[in-house]
Design brief:
The protein has about 325 residues and is α+β, with helices and mostly antiparallel strands. About 50% of the residues lie in helices and about 15% in strands. Strand 7 (about 270-275) and strand 8 (about 280-285) form a beta hairpin. The N and C termini lie far apart (about 90 Å).
Length: about 325
């Protein structure tokens, strides 16, 4: 302070916003500071205040640049770690946890496009609202997805009406959505809920989203290769068992065990068509007592197994009790 002129309240408040001190305390400090009287015109006073304001703003911007540089370095390290992760679930979890560490994000989710249903479905989520966010999905033409597909850039919604229209519950007060692009197609979205992001954060996260989708794709391919290798290994073991000198009963149990292990099934059965019984007869079981089902006979068209016998085609049933194809039929 080099002139005996009262500092404006506006300037003191701005100065206080850049230092760890309140405007009232800053006024007291200014009053106690020794003054060197100078013969200055009011325009000189304004110039000095402008210079001081520029210096403070420059220092503030340097802090922002330093923070962004630190985040970029951290994201680079996360990117290196992502490329080393072997499964898609590990990649998704690492990225969401990184958001919490770098940006203070508590609630976030990742959605990917399901080509079968043409819906974006949540595949991973974190935070206290996980029970709410992990069940969220939308079609490519509605709500959140429609806005992202229109702009192909980050979308921010903090209007209660728009959030409810997009299908979000009342617990969500705001949402930043970043597209995961594969060429011209939006293959997924990252949602960040109930947090304010600085404008400088958006291009950094947008750029990282491009790398994230590459990491997801690579991890998905690794998962697929691993699954196919497991299938090949199980088939190879089954073929070895077929060629070995074992009893028929042992062979049936080996085939069933390999199939159940491959599909991670807790229960299962192996059935063969019996001419005399004119139906399927159970030859091996897994997960329940064979004595209870050894006299079961399933005719063509009865239940799941009977439908497969009748059509000669595989049948996948997610819920036996509600599947209309099995109504009024035995459910074996």
């Amino acid at each position: 302070r080099v002139f005996d002129t009262p500092l404006t309240d506006e300037f003191i408040e701005e100065l206080a916003s850049h230092v760890d001190i309140s405007p009232e305390e800053l006024k007291i400090l200014a009053a106690l500071t020794s003054v060197k009287p100078l013969n200055l015109f009011q325009k000189d006073v304004g110039s000095l205040e402008g210079i001081a304001r520029y210096i403070l703003q420059s220092g503030f911007e340097r802090n922002i640049l330093s923070d962004n540089a630190s985040r970029l370095r951290a994201l680079l390290n996360v990117g290196i770690d992502l490329s080393a992760r072997s499964s898609r679930d590990e990649v998704l979890k690492l990225f969401l946890n990184s958001l919490e560490f770098l940006y203070g994000v508590q609630d976030a989710s990742i959605m990917l496009l399901d080509s079968g249903s043409h819906r974006y479905k949540t595949v991973s989520s974190v935070g206290p609202l996980r029970a709410v966010t992990e069940s969220y999905s939308c079609t490519i033409a509605e709500g959140l997805a429609a806005k992202v597909l229109e702009y192909r850039s980050p979308v921010y919604i903090n209007n209660a009406f728009d959030l409810l229209k997009a299908g979000f519950p009342e617990e969500i007060s705001s949402c930043f959505t970043f597209p995961l692009q594969e060429g011209e197609q939006v293959a997924g979205m990252i949602n960040i809920f109930n947090v304010e992001l600085a404008q400088d954060d958006l291009p950094i996260l947008t750029a990282f989203c491009r790398y994230l989708y590459t990491a997801i794709t690579n991890a998905t391919l690794r998962d697929s290769i691993r699954s196919q290798m497991d299938t090949l290994f199980a088939v190879t073991e089954a073929c070895s068992a077929l060629c070995s000198d074992t009893s028929t009963d042992e062979l049936f149990h080996t085939i069933l065990d390999k199939a159940a292990s491959l599909l991670k099934a807790e229960q299962g059965s192996l059935m063969l068509f019996n001419e005399e019984a004119k139906g399927l007869v159970i030859k091996a079981t897994r997960g329940f007592n064979e004595k209870l089902v050894e006299h079961f006979r399933i005719r063509p068209g009865e239940g799941i197994a009977g439908r497969v016998l009748e059509s000669g085609k595989p049948l996948i049933v997610s819920d036996i009790s509600s599947d209309p194809r099995l109504s009024g039929r035995k459910r074996q």
